């Protein structure tokens, strides 16, 4: 195995440490040039986790800050920003900088969040111990400063703390500071999860609004987050905000690795011949017009001895995504499963959904999957009249994400109990063993289904329930749901990848209330007859599948009857 020339920066998000300790660095300092060439008063960059947001803001901090300016200048020696010319390097060490991350301000109650914010602001203010002694500060300023440092500030003072710090730095230096805010949305997501969203959003609107809107003491600001879901409720009256999402062309190649950057990294580490396979595994994201590699996965791949495996895991902690998956209906579950079979889904591009409406917005799930990195937009369509939302086609980006998607999205849709029973059930279904198929399906229903689940639209529930179980077959079967064949639309059909394997048609019926197996059997037989009468096996036959099992399945509460 080739020896690595430089250590991969696993978990290193401090720019100074990365350069000073000679970690491998993919040069993104062109972002500094782009900002200097023309920036908005406030820029919000949204990207999936582990795409370098914190490191990017740290890079801006060390370039612009007045503190240790000469020492920091050496960090940029030989990098793209220095090569861009002295007119750009003149901006190095030119202004005060406020750098903060709200990642840790995530609590289970509003009172706890305010306490955490008080501690957080105290630490932030302590980074500027010289301000109280500055001759530019008056007694009112000093008193407010010490209130924050000593955790003695009321909520109103805390809401103005960021704007006040900008003012104090301007008074001291005579220059407007640059504000760098990482993970602005972390407290909001926590508040939505724990039920104090309205209190949090009001605080954050005042906290950020005071600092970002018509702040005469702010030079400009760059913010990062995973999404802009809360944009309308925080920044609704902020008209100087430029939001750069995964669909935006501006700054589209700053976060993540472009193909030339990934190629150079591989060649620098002596594994350039592995580039085609790297592309299959970790490329495929599309931000604006740029094809992007997952930076975390690429550096983990090299650091782990060049073994291809999924490194981008554990995103299932996203509470919003879990909630949206919980309420996914039969059609959504079918579409989500279809993505595993390289079928695209079409979604409206509405990135401004606010949290209180997210469960009522049919499009929110796909926007969340797009912004959090599970899907990519392959085509975007705009209505020339401007009267309709634009739409986009969405696909899973690459091989790594197919594995992650299966574990974290499809796996979440699969019942959490009865995993082994589900495998036995599917094996019996493919073998034409109706009695064993019914036995294990009955066991799973008894273990994991609540009567409350089946109270509304029971047939849709059972359809989604079975679809969740059958994702275990995705390697060997193409699973179709509500598809036309013959003279009607079957409920579920299983098309084998290997035409010598059996195909399966399931027609489902549901009866309301608690019903015995004997009472359900006529309904199961009716479902079986429907398969024959409407010739649902037509498409399977047309695709060369000779061995086909038909099942009529009837559900009632936690009971099931099966006819074959």
Could you describe the 3D structure shown?
This protein is an alpha/beta fold and 564 residues long. The chain folds into 3 domains: 28-244, Rossmann fold (3-Layer(aba) Sandwich); 315-413, no CATH class; 419-563, no CATH class. The protein contains 25 helices and 15 strands. It has helices at residues 15-20, 30-37, 53-64, 69-73, 80-83, 86-89, 110-126, 139-149, 155-159, 161-173, 186-194, 197-212, 231-234, 259-268, 275-282, 295-303, 319-326, 330-339, 364-371, 399-413, 419-431, 434-448, 458-470, 517-533, 538-542, and strands at residues 42-46, 97-101, 178-182, 220-225, 241-244, 285-287, 290-292, 345-348, 376-381, 391-395, 477-485, 488-496, 503-510, 548-556, 559-563. The strands form 4 sheets. A 5-stranded parallel beta sheet has the order 2-3-4-1-5, with helices on one face. Helix 18 packs parallel to helix 23.
Topology of this structure?
Layout: H1 15-20, H2 30-37, E1 42-46, H3 53-64, H4 69-73, H5 80-83, H6 86-89, E2 97-101, H7 110-126, H8 139-149, H9 155-159, H10 161-173, E3 178-182, H11 186-194, H12 197-212, E4 220-225, H13 231-234, E5 241-244, H14 259-268, H15 275-282, E6 285-287, E7 290-292, H16 295-303, H17 319-326, H18 330-339, E8 345-348, H19 364-371, E9 376-381, E10 391-395, H20 399-413, H21 419-431, H22 434-448, H23 458-470, E11 477-485, E12 488-496, E13 503-510, H24 517-533, H25 538-542, E14 548-556, E15 559-563
Parallel strand pairs: 1-4, 1-5, 2-3, 3-4, 13-14
Antiparallel strand pairs: 6-7, 8-10, 9-10, 11-12, 12-13, 14-15
